[in-house]
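ugh ok fine here u go
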Amino acid sequence: MRSPVTPKVIRRLLAADGYLHLELPELAVSELQKIKNAGPLEGPRHLLLGLALKRAGESELAIEHLETAARVMPTPVRSFAWSELADCYRSIGSFALANFADSLGGEKTYELRIALPFGEISIESTGATVEVV
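structure:
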């Protein structure tokens, strides 16, 4: 049985997303680490945590979270996670893994926007928009 999503989880995810937009990744990491169980939003939590850690200069720690997001998120978001992983792999010197992640992420440039609660996740990719409900 899945855990219900609480308002506190939603507030923390939104706060973390806001901190990332304000280029304060350390504060985003802090908010996301306070979430013990995000229930059905565990995938977005891993994605945001991976992005925040990467932007905080902690690429090695970001890898675990981005890999989880790449496995559990829907296809367009999965491609975005693989693209972010490629950069992390390069930064730690794993060039073979970076090339593999690049092949899974594709050659598109992504801009991720997450709307909660239970809103649409949209990824813009070179002019086209893909929406996941």
